[in-house]
């Protein structure tokens, strides 16, 4: 071993530590606000880092697939409101409900939908989409992704400077396979009862959002409600009331 090798090794280790602390994402400051200050404050840079991989999954696949999809549709709508281009949404089946996308403000004119029967083809389509400058980002609906495939998507998203969202449609039994994922964030979504406020009226959609993983940040849990008039998320009323009482 030459005298310079230990020094070079230490430089390499320091570089790896910096990448890990930054989540491996490009430090261009590009983030996406979730529309709720309480959520944005828990994310590095004050919002969702755009140059990287993000995972969304239902807490209970048989019950919370709708809320998880709704949360991802909301993220997609906010992305297209902030960036030019179109969004590529790749799934195994052609079952994305277009009216639901319109409700959250996601323009179907800017939505490209593709189906891939095989997981390998779906992942390939996502990588190709990330390499396309005309797209603002990509979304893939998958059952599970191994660490190698997830790393490829993270690196592709980092290089492109645009997000890749993975919707884990079947979360049951995949926790171990997801443990080594390089995703910048991992969200788990569950439905909560809504408070209609008035009899016989449907209230705002309420979700339990668990931030299970956050590169450069800490896990957190939120009870939120979605305002279909503004397209924003906010802390659910009981949490706002408790926060106000604490300040008083």
From TrEMBL:
Gene3D superfamilies named among the record's database cross-references: P-loop containing nucleotide triphosphate hydrolases
Superkingdom in the source lineage: Bacteria
Protein name: Damage-inducible protein
